[in-house]
Design goal:
2 copies of one chain form a homodimer. Helix content of chain A is about 40%, strand content about 25%. A 6-stranded mixed beta sheet of chain A has the order 2-1-3-8-7-6, sandwiched between helices. The first copy, chain A, is elongated and about 85 Å long. Chain A has 14 helices and 17 strands. With about 425 residues, the first copy, chain A, is α/β, with parallel strands linked by helices. Chain A folds into 3 domains: about 170 residues, MoaB/Mog-like domain (Molybdenum Cofactor Biosythetic Enzyme, Chain A), CATH 3.40.980; about 80 residues, Alpha-Beta Plaits (2-Layer Sandwich), CATH 3.30.70.2860; about 150 residues, Alpha-Beta Complex (Maf protein), CATH 3.90.950. The model of chain A has no long low-confidence stretch (mean pLDDT about 90). At the A-B interface, helix 2, strand 2, helix 7, strand 10 and strand 13 of A face helix 1, helix 2, strand 2, strand 13 and helix 10 of B. Strand 2 of chain A pairs antiparallel with strand 2 of chain B.
């Protein structure tokens, strides 16, 4: 079962507001086993509305329209739908008492006559009642598809979606189910992932594989549409366990888990406390950790030692070491992690120093060069990385790499 | 000048992520005097991509496509565009050295062969270089329209939009002019702003006023469309100066300036150095400051004293004070700011402590309670605030308030 979603209204296209409805609609449809194959957003223009609906009812099973149901002349979804389907419009007298009652209950106001426009539904449509506002929605069937039109106001849209549209679809269309697994990776690129998984994907019958690159890493999504939930689960289980075996420790988590959450959980399991000393990431590693509720259970805090003076005064890094090796060096990263561990009394400490740019780079130490050190009971280790991109990207990537290195140390990787 | 925007990719349709790109694109086009008349979002399906582009190039002047430029078989924007325009695709050998260099700079990795797919541009296309990733964008002209294709990764999209697409359109299509002024405020709500400005707005002929609330504060946007740049500028100058007079120190900056940038500039003018001690904001104040290039000129660093132990060991806060008043108290915030100032040798220091939630609140000290202290040469001052919202909102609001309090102290406000 495929669906198209159509958003009607000039506000979103004008860049004045963010379309928060669509994300919610897409997620609700996905969870109901309905695949949204396209979303269109058009202005209050009857030709654009009619043209889009006309194409959609030929292509998919469900057309879900939001917005354009108000009482003013620029609310054109009723007219656009009627025109798309080649039917007329009739003022639905049977709905007038309900609309008048809505106005009475809403502070005793008398209904403006213009509100009657909201009842001029396309012929053949069933009204969908609106307990949260004045505009009724409607449902109308075509030879292939069913069209739903609901208001654009998020609260009114949401109620109709969950209380009228999805229940009707479950009863009359019994959509297929979908199951999804998301594996989150760090330290490996999208094309590397695809090349490693490709030889195995043919054997994962019915399981779709997609890659979603973000700055913290690449997510691998395994999905399965179908009618037999047990078989889908079995086939997804097999695909997921093979993917995990192939990708090994590149996979840090699943679903919406963040690297910070994973690291904090691993620290909690060991009963270890963490402190971080940051230079080029400037507080981002600490901010990522403290974004997690309950992080205080395993995270003590840290130092943002942005200047050399801060490295010496707050972490006890020897000024001579900084003069000899430079503040961006393996020696400095190690001294920061060790100084942090000693001063805080934490079990494990991170030290991150690098050149975020845009200034400060040299031929030998270019922008993007970052050293990450982990000081743990077994000793201190350090890694050198060169991150591409502008300042913000370098800082974000360095933050993810720091948390990931800590994760690998906690996993006992050599 | 009308534009269509096409978003390619299954992620958004699947309800997995919110489409944050479109809002930004629509706003940027609007500000450039280009009207977006439709937005479509389609899955990784070559027929859907080609069909949408084919229709759009007949209807509008500009077609802006994001996503589907990666190296994997489900990246189909190049093929879809070629099919829509009836042209072939050629592997662009001339772009190979650049792509290889991108991979070399990214930790010396060898380029996987599959990445060459990213260079199979439609015939007749001009490549748009990508300093933030491996996929080039492209621009291709049709008899009526110009099609731009850029990656879906927000950072890569944003760079190409502002550095390549809009400059090209300004040079070759000269859209109607718009002039915009953005005044950024902190510490005052949207409806308060509207009420203060309303009595004056009628006199600002042709100047549109809009309010954009964000977590750091509310932006007041003054805009003027037209053909006479001098008159527009004169009328905008008048409106802006009146608005600034009415709003006083609620206005912290203009354009895209951040609070952190403003504070760093003010510190630089005084020759002062800053250090920050954060508890509930967990590194966000430091991260906001170090996001600004060149912040090291005025920012020394700081301490994230998340645990009580960290407050004592890294800042020298008396454990007895914490036992008596609690870690979330005016006394603790003052001691953090003063301890930070003393230990770092900075001229001015911030101390922030509070309850970000969701746990840890009590009747007397609820979630959202935050104390902000500024220790400066003239003494230490402290403010209590109660922020609404969930953990992330509390942390963001507390970060903005801390930077804003520091700004007001630097301004000499009583």
């Amino acid at each position: 079962m495929d669906a198209h979603v159509l958003t009607v209204g000039g506000e979103i296209l004008a860049g004045d507001i963010l379309d928060s409805n669509f994300h919610e609609i897409a997620a609700a449809f996905r969870d109901a086993g309905i695949r949204v194959t396209a979303h269109a957003s058009v202005a209050d223009d009857v030709d654009a509305i009619a043209g889009t609906i006309r194409r959609s009812v030929e292509e998919v099973d469900i057309v879900f329209v939001t917005g354009g149901l108000g009482p003013t002349p620029d609310d054109l979804t009723r007219e656009g739908t009627a025109r798309a389907l080649g039917v007329g419009q009739t003022l639905r007298e049977d709905l007038v008492p309900d609309l008048e009652a809505t106005f009475r209950s809403h502070g005793g106001r008398t209904m403006p006559v213009s509100n009657l426009n909201q009842l001029r539904l396309p012929d053949g449509a069933e009204a969908i009642s609106n307990p949260n506002g004045s505009a009724p929605g409607f449902r109308i069937e075509t030879p292939r598809a069913v069209v739903f039109a609901v208001p654009g106001v998020p609260r009114e849209m949401r109620w109709m979606l969950h209380e009228a549209v999805l229940p009707w679809l479950r009863e009359h269309r019994s959509p297929t189910a979908i199951q999804v697994r998301l594996l989150r990776t760090q330290g490996i690129g999208e094309s590397d992932l695809a090349e490693r998984l490709a030889p195995h994907m043919d054997a994962w019958r019915g399981v779709g594989v997609a890659f979603y690159p973000h700055l913290p890493g690449v997510d691998v999504k395994l999905s399965h549409f179908g009618k037999d939930p047990r078989r889908m689960k079995r086939e997804l289980d097999q695909a997921e366990s093979e993917a995990r075996r192939i990708l090994g420790t590149y996979v840090y988590g699943s679903g919406k888990e963040t690297l910070a959450e994973v690291v904090l959980r691993m620290l909690g399991e060991r009963g270890w406390r963490l402190a971080v000393a940051e230079s080029c990431t400037g507080g981002r590693v600490a901010a990522a950790l403290t974004a997690v509720p309950g992080s205080s259970k395993a995270f003590d805090g840290g130092v943002v030692s942005y200047s050399n003076r801060a490295k010496s005064e707050l972490l006890g890094v020897d000024p001579e070491l900084l003069a000899t090796h430079g503040a961006v060096s393996e020696a400095a990263a190690r001294a920061m992690a060790e100084g942090m561990r000693e001063r805080s009394g934490a079990d494990v400490a991170l030290g991150v120093t690098g050149i975020a740019g845009p200034g400060g780079g040299t031929a030998g130490k270019p922008v993007g060069l970052v050293y990450t050190a982990v000081a743990a009971p077994g000793g201190t280790r350090c890694w050198e990385m060169r991150h591409p991109g502008v300042r913000d990207a370098v800082q974000q990537r360095a933050t993810s790499v720091a948390l990931n290195r800590l994760r690998l140390v906690l996993l006992g990787e050599p």
